[in-house]
Amino acid sequence: MKWASWCESIALFAGLIAILTLISTAYFCPQCASFLIACAVIGYVVAKVAGRVVRDEEVKRKPDVRVRLEELARERQEEMDATRTFYASPEWRLLREQVIAEQGRRCRQCGRHIASDFDLTVDHIKPRSKFPELALDKSNLQVLCRQCNSSKGNTILDGLSEDLEASEVVKNRR
Fold it and tell me: I need a labelling partner for 64 at 20 to 30 A (CA). Which of 39, 83, 108, 156 fits?
């Protein structure tokens, strides 16, 4: 049973004793009635103090949660800033254009021709988030349409590039 539930049980018990006390004054001797009243008061006080302790602990925990959320938000913002900086860098832009020139405007996953510049993306086969050392490695890059790139996310599609290269070799022989 949780501490808060236990405190609520004590408060309920104290309330029941108080009701019984009111009823019992007519049926019990004054000493018994006084004893029941004292029990009711003590139970009520214990429940109130215990409830206050629970609330105080919750108030103490809230700033810890808030601080952790702020830390996480700050870390996420730093990651987003680093990503923007990377994709705006002249090194990435040059490498991206080289990959598009070499691989063409055909999606390496679905094989669709990509006419729109908006839909043309250069994807990291091994995700940048997991393999930052391969971020500017041309052999880790492939042309994908926006839809395939979005559905891929930061996963690794094993053998994708090799399969497509093999199928292109077969097409070129025909």
Answer: 83
Q: What is the pLDDT of residues 41-53, one digit of tens each?
A: 666 666 666 555 5
Out of 1-5, 119-123, 133-137, pick the least confident: 1-5
Q: Which residues have C-beta within 8 Å of that of residue 6, sequence separation ≥ 6?
A: 50
Residue 118: partners with Cβ closer than 8 Å, 6 or more residues away: 146
CB 107 within 8 A of CB 151: no
Q: What are the structure tokens assigned to 57, written together?
A: 């602990």
Would you kindly state where each structural domain of the chain is located, as residue ranges?
A: 3-63, 89-173
| CB contact set of 40 (below 8 Å; sequence gap of 6+) | 14, 15, 17, 18, 21
Six token digits for residue 2: 């949780």
